[in-house]
Design goal:
The complex is a heterodimer of chains A (about 450) and B (about 625). Chain A has 16 helices and seven strands. By secondary structure, chain A is α/β, with parallel strands linked by helices. Chain A folds into two domains: about 260 residues, 3-Layer(aba) Sandwich (Rossmann fold); about 110 residues, Cytochrome-c3 Hydrogenase, Chain A, domain 2 (Irregular), CATH 4.10.480. In chain B, helix 10 packs antiparallel against helix 11 and helix 11 packs antiparallel against helix 15. The termini of chain B are far apart. The chains are: A alpha/beta (about 450), B alpha+beta (about 625). The structure holds iron/sulfur cluster (2 copies).
Amino acid sequence: MGEIPEKHVGEAGHHKQRESSTMGLPDQVGNVARRTMEELAEDICASQGKSKFSLGPLEKVYVFWLAGMSCDGCTVSVSGATEPALEDLLTGSIPGVPLVVLHHYVLQLESGDHYIQTLINAEQGKLDGPYVLVYEGSIPDENLTVGGEPFAGEGSLPLWAPSDERRRVSTAEWMKRLGPGAAASIAIGTCATWGGIPAAYGNITGSMSLMDWMGKDYRSALGLPVINIPGCAPVGDNFTDAVQAILLFLQGLGPLPEFDELGRPAWQFSETVHTHCVRAGFYEEGTFAKEYGDKECLVEIGCWGPVVNCNITEKGAISHMGGCMNSGAPCIGCTMPGFPDKFSPFYKAPPGSLVSSNASRLLGSVVRNLRRISQRERNREIRWHDTVPSGWAMERGGTSLTHKILEVFYEAMQFQGGKAPERDPQKKFPTGYQSLPDRVYTKDYQQLPEDRVLKTEKRV
Amino acid sequence: MCFKNLPVEFDAQGNAHLKGGVVDPYAYKPREIKRDKLEELLARNGHIKDVSISPVTRVAGALSFHAVADLQERKFLEANSVATIFRGYEVILKGRDPRDAIYISSRACGVCGGVHSTAACEAIEMAFGISPPPLGTVLRNLALALDFLYDHPLHLFLLAGPDYSQVVVQATSPAMWEKATRTEAPNAEVHQFKTIGDIMKGLNPLSGKLYLDGLKMTRTPREAYSVLFGKYPHPQTVVPGGMSSTVTITDFNETYTRLQKMIDWTKRMILLWDDLTEFFYEYNPEYKKVGARAANMIDLGMWDDENSYDASYARCNEWGEKRSVIDGQLVTTKLQQLNLGLEEFVEHSYYEDWNQNGKQRFATDPSGAPLSPNHPWNKETLPKPSKESWKDRYTWDTAPRWDRQVVEAGCYARIWTTAAAGLMPKNEFLESTGHSLKFHMPKTMLRAMDFEWKIPTLWNAFERNRARAYCMGYNLMVAYTMVLKAFDLLRKGEDKVSTKFEVPMGERIGVGFWGAGRGYLSHHLTLDKGAITNYQIVTPSTFNASPKDPFGNPGPYEEAVLNTPILEDFDKPSDFTGVDMLRAIRSFDPCMPCTTHIYGGEREIVREVNTCACSAEG
Ligand code: SF4
Ligand code: SF4
């Protein structure tokens, strides 16, 4: 993602291009550009020109983003996505990927009835392309609000009517009206995929996940159950990555994107976050953080990573950077159906870790020590036998007996099944080179005074 | 004297007590909203227009707005700000381990993705009697500054910006667009946009350079944030007693390089917003009235001094002054007074009054000062979804007031108060003079530059946006200072980021004073037997989006719209777009997720049934 070129090729604002579809509507309140964002996107596409040949049957896909009990965190995450980046999807700038016309309340140019009009067009089958629904946040049980204001409302109907004749429409109702005609329904974020925080114990809005709400039998127009991209907040790139994968498949270009038994993109969520964790090595060697801020494995201060399906340690949080454990945050299982109640109280070591972390402590103490010996040997040039010519620390050149024995075994194994090359380990440099101090002081060079030898021994 | 309306006095030692001789000191009689004349006008007249905007887009979360416009007189007669979402978060917190409050309350808002966790932590720390080590505090400050640094470009270029873009200006005021293309931008040499028209073109959604660069600039601070704190929003690195980040030199270096990039860009953006603002004022001075209201503001300050902050209520005035606190006319810088003056009202919201339930939970704060029954520590909100009525109840937001006055929150409230108070400890980069805020931005690709944000004599939509641009520079230099402080602590070997703690079992009370991208944020918490007994969040948009209060004062968005003249061009009433009013609303950068997290008590929700019901069974 480099800098934007000084002159961006696609440009909106050529009003003369085409009459806006909004001109015939009863009023213009909220239509501040007297033109929809969709029309702007199309103007941009038009100004980019056409490729010589088509890369698939789809030219344009509508995405309606609806929010229920949400914090907008999922939206914020997706705005940070760069693989692919939101702006590239929205301007049709990725070859083979159709123009994504996103209808999102946080980004939309037009407000009010002009915003809602497109939803109505979709319901009536008047759009010139398929549409996808994205739901963020959990769905409240609007039966509790019958006759009153819904818990989560978006827009009011009938359009163009005076305020006292209108009623607020819940986003659940939009879901119900648009769900059957959608090419696909995507739940984004843990609230929408599994209920999340608004559906935790004690909730009074009857909140639930999209899957719970739509039921087992829901199928989109393309025959798909609800697609789930969990995380609280999700990794923004997981969303755009999945969208691009699906679109490229539909265009006949990309491979079949697979989904797991809970409707998650399998290529993103089939491993535990622990497998790719930057601290997994500490776990393996049985070393654990005791306090916040320590660098070791976080399992004993509350990390659930080993049992959580998530890819943040590998994918990063944004632009391949960050990630919970990467920075020192224990995993609280925010991508999981059991979140939050099966993971709280947070900050407590997961009960299961008692067995596993102690087991790895036991095994780790052996493995770790063997590794350190081996590591130490590999931190030596083949030329360094007794002395190490480093000015950085007082390194003891010699090796202990166990060390030497281990190295004999190591070497035997290294060349097992083949022939060990003939080398003279005593010959430091093939040319017979001697460093200046070596030449001057011969063997006495680096002979440390006694107290320093003691100190060094203590340190090593 | 700090309070004008509340029945509270202070003695010579500064201790607060109730005024003598008043029987029911906090009682009041709610004023009715009269609308008959308006309804008559609406029924009769073609140029009186009922304006319903649902949803208002380019704000975070679910906001609707209703207004009555007089298109002949070109002004607004009525304005109602409507929050259309309710989530009930705090009841989910009740009975839980207090530490859970950090992660659960964080989900109140994903726009300012880490501020709630910190506010919750501060409340917990007060209740537990612990505080973070210096590096922990510095890291929190840095997190907050980075949070803002993503938030400001988001507001300036993606949410509010498009209202000043070519496509909008051309559609609503063609003559202005003409003039803009011919007007040279005074600071073009720095920001590289030759004419005002070029700036407007840059602001075009999806294709403008400013729009696209702005979007990218929201990512840069989030990258640094994710490196240091894991992810954005909802980092898990905020813990009671400090932070859990494992900080390395690389983390700070990666942050440092991102700050450098932002410094370069911000220098240009500040001057660009200056140019745009002045152009509107010059084109038509009436624009100075768009979104205007008196500068009554509230802020709690933030950026704790790592050597003063000890999370205690007893000393909150001292560590608070090391922050940059104040109400509009610089009434007080004392956090305790800010706390005592706070009340929430629900007369025009979909909630029942909790005071009918009997006894007030706390008559005083921990220091013995009198507390209103409407104070968050006493509040218990009982949701009651009912039908929208402009005379009665019309929003899920409540009406928080300070000393029964309407106050506005915002990042500009913070710089305003910081500038006016002149209390901020000065350093090489930042200085508050009592009437302005100065900051120095070091040399990057662009030359070193000095900026000064002077307290404006006007307060309106343009000044809000301009202040936002200046805030970016200011916050950037705060972030920069924090990185230097962190380096300094590391050099001294003070690398501890957290303190150990145990969950206390007795009855405890705590409050976290912090700030969100849009300003004021407090979490009030009560604990008993190691579990949460009450939890209340007051956020900036709770103030700003609030409905009328029982004293008849409209909330800040409402007031700003009522003061907005209608300046756009239109031939017939049906061509009216409402762009001026939308500019006024968006200048506050509404953020509804925060606003409507408010919780319900243990009562069941009253279910009213009437005819125009939409059933939403699934
Ligand atoms: S899943 Fe998390 S980030 Fe997304 S809306 Fe819910 S609380 Fe916010
Ligand atoms: S590592 Fe854990 S807490 Fe972090 S994003 Fe993944 S599931 Fe959520």
